[in-house]
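Next comes one such specimen:
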Amino acid sequence: MKNNNVKKLVEISLLIALEVILTRFCSINTAILRIGFGFLPIAIIAMMYGPLSAGVAYAVGDLLGMMIFPNGSYFPGFTLTAFLTGVIYGLVLYKKPKTWGRIILAVCIVCLGMNLCLDAVWLHILMGKGFFALLPTRIFKAVVMIPVQTILIQLVWKNIILKIAKPSEIIA
């Protein structure tokens, strides 16, 4: 039992490090928009370890990324969004079949609910710009990221995770 906890902690830690790298170095950043791939390690954590692990991991990754590689001022609303994103992926995908429909559902909730709406609220609070003025670029991001996230999550799950993990550890 103790070895399983250590293994889980190490795997989640490595995926948090990957999330920080993908978010901070492999993304396109503007003042009001970030298009990146940091969602992928969090979706993997959610599918393998559940909603709470994924939520905490994404919040920790957000905090670590902000402390190590600051990019603007810190705002706790984005950390809340990160936590909720991990929880949503976990609620929809943990211990359930990883079908296209489930993945699309999880990605749509995250992209439309968290990234489009909630992040626009945080940006409105931070920048003072009108909420509706922020929506066109946020809608563009959602339109681009929904198919990208859906395809990448499914491809990584089927072609990498299922091939390296033990069948007893995961539910396909």
User: Anything to note?
Assistant: The mean pLDDT is 87.
